[in-house]
Amino acid sequence: MLTKRPRGTNDFLPEDTAKWQYLENMLRGICRQFGYAELRTPIFEETALFLRGVGDTTDIVQKEMYTFEDAGGRSLTLRPENTASAVRAYVENKLFAGQQPVRLFYMGPMFRYERPQAGRFRQFHQFGVECFGAASPAADAEVIALAWEFYRRLGLQGLEMNLNSVGCPNCRPAYRQALQDFLRPHLAELCPTCQERFEKNPLRILDCKNPQCQQFLQGAPTTLDALCDDCREHFAAVQDYLQAAAIPYRLNTKLVRGLDYYTNTAFEILLSDIGAQSAVCGGGRYNGLVEELGGKPAPGVGFALGMERVFSALNAQEIELPAAPGIDVFVAVLDKQAQTQAFQLACELRSQGLAVGYDTLERSLKAQLKYADSQKVAYVLLVGGDELTRGSVALRDMQSSEQIELPLPEVGAVLTARLLK
């Protein structure tokens, strides 16, 4: 019986991976322009990292983590997100001892046990950035600008930036109490999930999708109402920076994000074209997370975006990415006696930087030329016959059908010159 891939995962075939590489290269280029360097962390970490870093009241920790015990009895978890891992790397490798701020980006697979649906998978891929050591609102605006620039370059239409401030440990307790006081008369009528959140993390009730819960939130106090002076000034400055950069946004006082570590700025980029799960990017500030994970207090801000959702958005708006470059030249073998020399020529041309195809099926010349044409190859080298006896090969231009004879030592230079035109 055929073994199939696990539910909630995907195979990415060569035509798919070419598109992934295009986006990954675009992201790497943008990060270089913004001064962010790549970080690579393990795919699994100690479970305690996510319990402390993500928050034990979150859906991720309570329901979605892939946790297992290794042969040494250690509890390990496939990373469900990468911010906690980035903080751990920042602390463990003493990046705080160098020049600040430390600007990092990452990309790679994450794992959550979720019900697979459009835009949601159990193995999914994230790109994200983290900026450590900068408390300035300019750092918040910088990471938002980086995300916005990526989507702008893709040409996606209908993007909406949602922005909020969730306060800090000084002002959030008062807001938490005010929200609980407001909702307490309706506690029994809230959905079971919100009833559970009421004591543990009442701010999460704000983003509940249940229409009845949303009805009871009408007229509820907002996080912006409860901000202390420092948080209010910080949030106003973030908006000033975004306006200076001509990045449009709208205030969404119900935006709190799904992770416990956020402080001050929270943001999401939404796109309605990809269905109910319309967020294509989200992030914010997390000034207490480094200390929570064992480091000295250091501010942080960042975001993550799901790569699969990017592709869903591109498909919905029928945006085609550039095709991957193919082979430059195909080496066709005229007769069996020429196979070794043709293979040698293909290897020599590859060592000179050319992308070269070679027939390994021992097909007829007609079949080889048909294959070369299907690959949209610009040139074919015909190796064998009288030309090879003279130390030459035939070069055929597949577009014009022009054919010339070339001495073997000149083949590389002639092809390079033609392909550079």
Can you walk through the features of this model?
The strands form 3 sheets. An 8-stranded mixed beta sheet has the order 1-5-6-11-10-9-7-8, sandwiched between helices. Strands 13-12-14-15-16 form a 5-stranded mixed beta sheet, sandwiched between helices. A 3-stranded antiparallel beta sheet has the order 2-4-3. It is of the alpha+beta class and 421 residues long. α1 packs antiparallel against α5 and α5 (137-154) runs parallel beside α9 (229-244). The radius of gyration is 28 Å and the shape is elongated. It has 2 domains: 14-171 and 227-316, Bira Bifunctional Protein, Domain 2 (BirA Bifunctional Protein, domain 2, 2-Layer Sandwich); 329-415, Anticodon-binding domain (Rossmann fold). The longest helix is centred in the first third of the chain and has 21 residues, at 14-34. The two termini are 53 Å apart. A hairpin with a 5-residue loop joins β3 and β4 (75-78). The chain is built from 15 helices and 16 strands. The protein is 37% helix and 20% strand.
Shape: elongated
Unreliable runs = none
**What's the CATH C level of the largest domain?**
Alpha Beta
* CATH architectural arrangement of the largest domain: 2-Layer Sandwich
Name the strands of the widest sheet in spatial order.
Answer: 1-5-6-11-10-9-7-8
The CATH topology assignment of the largest domain is BirA Bifunctional Protein, domain 2
Determine the strand fraction and express it as a percent band.
15-25%
CATH superfamily of the largest domain: Bira Bifunctional Protein, Domain 2
Largest sheet entry? 8 strands, mixed
Rounded mean pLDDT score: 92
